[in-house]
Amino acid sequence: MARYTGPKHRLSRREKQNLGDKTSASLSRRLNVPPGMHGPKGSRNKVSDYGLQLREKQKAKRIYGLLERQFRKYYQAAAAVKGKTGEALLQTLERRLDNAIFRLGFVPSRTMGRQLVSHGHILVNGKKVTIPSYLLRVDEVVTISPRAMEIPAVKKMLEKEEAKVPDYYEKKAAAGRLLRLPPRDDVPTDVNEQLIIEHYSR
């Protein structure tokens, strides 16, 4: 599946929020200035309802590292599920394997999580999975290969005792398990999913 490979700070400045998983002093200083040569002028324009909905959808896509086609498929699948569409959408995004190993604190970013999966360093129930978009099922166990544990960034993350893991995941050393589908209130993602639903429902 294709992915965005352009400048990450540009996307964060467009959404006025750090969409990555790392902090940057230079980005923090420029978050309120949109990208481009007309950035300061563009920040004074009034945003329409459609603009608000679009920006929220773009923000969610960029947080999880998805392009439009795949994100729309996730929305369509969520809309077909009984219950709250927004909650179902976020549950699907949270079950992605690249996001799961980020939530479990194995890697410092979803981008690195995607890379580890693609390079065959992640096992699900003891079997190697190389698809970042693989959707975990409840009670499936995720582990990191011994080789990956020697990667400096991964090793540093595993040594962190204070790493906070969401309640819907369970972590023990270099293994983690999806305990349940998370209710909306438990998902630590700063997006307004209702605006995303309104955008696609137009």
Put the structure in a nutshell.
The protein is α+β, with helices and mostly antiparallel strands. It is built from ten helices and five strands, in the order ααααααααβββαββα. The protein is globular, with a radius of gyration of 18 Å.
Summarize the helices and strands and which ones pair or pack.
Layout lengths: L7 H8 L9 H6 L8 H4 L6 H16 L3 H12 L5 H11 L1 H7 L6 H9 L3 E3 L2 E2 L12 E4 L7 H7 L10 E4 L2 E4 L14 H8 L2
Antiparallel strand pairs: 1-2, 1-3, 3-5, 4-5
Helix pairs in contact: 4-10, 5-6, 6-10, 7-8
Descriptive account of the structure:
This protein is of the alpha+beta class and 202 residues long. The protein has 2 domains: 8-91 and 191-200, Orthogonal Bundle (Ribosomal Protein S4 Delta 41, Chain A, domain 1), CATH 1.10.1050; 93-184, Structural Genomics Hypothetical 15.5 Kd Protein In mrcA-pckA Intergenic Region, Chain A (Roll). Helix content is 44%, strand content 8%. Strands 2-1-3-5-4 form a 5-stranded antiparallel beta sheet, covered by helices on one side. A hairpin with a 2-residue loop joins strand 4 (169-172) and strand 5. Helix 4 packs across helix 10 (193-200), helix 5 crosses helix 6 (85-95) and helix 7 packs across helix 8. The longest helix is centred in the N-terminal third of the chain and has 16 residues, at 49-64. It is globular. The model has no long low-confidence stretch (mean pLDDT 85).
How many angstroms does the end-to-end distance come to?
A: 27 Å
Q: Which strand order spans the largest sheet, edge to edge or round the barrel?
A: 2-1-3-5-4
**Cα radius of gyration in angstroms:** 18 Å
Task: Please bin the fraction of helical residues.
Answer: 40-55%
Q: How many separate helices?
A: 10
Instruction: Summarize the helix and strand pattern as letters.
Output: HHHHHHHHEEEHEEH
- The CATH topology of the largest domain is given as Ribosomal Protein S4 Delta 41, Chain A, domain 1
CATH class of the largest domain equals: Mainly Alpha
What share of the residues does DSSP label as strand, in percent?
Answer: 5-15%
The CATH architecture of the largest domain would be Orthogonal Bundle
- Structural class category: alpha+beta
What is the number of domains? 2
**Main sheet characteristics:** 5 strands, antiparallel
How many β-strand runs? 5
Oligomer: single chain
Which blocks of ≥5 consecutive residues have pLDDT under 50? none
What is the mean predicted local confidence, pLDDT?
A: 85
